[in-house]
Amino acid sequence: MSADHTSSVISARVRHVEALLESRGLLDEGEIDGRIDEFLAGGTPANGARITARAWVDPGFRERLLADANAAIREVGLSMAGGLQEQRLKVVANTADEHNVVVCTLCSCYPIALLGPSPGWYKSEAYRSRVVRDPRGVLREFGLELPERTRISVWDASAESRYMVVPRRPEGTEGLSEEQLAALVTRKGLIGTAAV
């Protein structure tokens, strides 16, 4: 059993349950930490970038992605089934008229499998509370200045649902391969706090 857990009532309870499962042979020592490490190792912004690039070059995939993201990402070998149950994924696409940004106002729910571990600012109380009230101002602080006519939609993640943004494809990229396009996509672009 790992000794890397912080001290708290919940941590003590988790350690106790983990020890019970290990003592009964239902869990190998360190198995939970190993599974967490596997889960985090598989999660990277490159996954979200790959999905985005495919949506940019394949209109049929884009349509399926926006209609049923969980099914569409399975087409490229990805899944939102990293925990006890598959998390619902909704993918939203930026357009010339609408910009999307993702937040979790309650905690920091986030599609780790597609974006890697969440950045510190995403978990901060300042971001979580302000982006809902003043999305344009928060985006400006990230260096993203949107025209006043652009509508901003804020998507609030939860324990059951995760969101990812498909940024607008940059102009002048028509000749790039899917792999080259994926290299242009950033985690901030997939959250909606930056353009690509």
Automatic annotation (TrEMBL):
Enzyme Commission (EC) number: 4.2.1.84
Residues in Nitrile hydratase alpha/Thiocyanate hydrolase gamma domain copies: 10-194
Superkingdom of this protein's organism: Bacteria
MF-aspect GO terms: nitrile hydratase activity; transition metal ion binding
Keywords from the named record: Iron, Lyase, Metal-binding
Keyword Ribosomal protein among record annotations: no
Catalyzed chemical reaction(s): an aliphatic primary amide = an aliphatic nitrile + H2O
Broad class of enzyme this protein falls into: lyase
The keyword Metal-binding is annotated on this UniProt entry: yes
Positions bound to Fe(3+): C104, C107, S108, C109
Gene3D superfamilies named in the record: Nitrile hydratase alpha /Thiocyanate hydrolase gamma
NCBIfam families referenced in this protein's UniProt entry, alphabetically: nitrile_alph
Record-stated family: Belongs to the nitrile hydratase subunit alpha family.
Listed name of the protein: nitrile hydratase
Lineage: Bacteria, Bacillati, Actinomycetota, Actinomycetes, Geodermatophilales
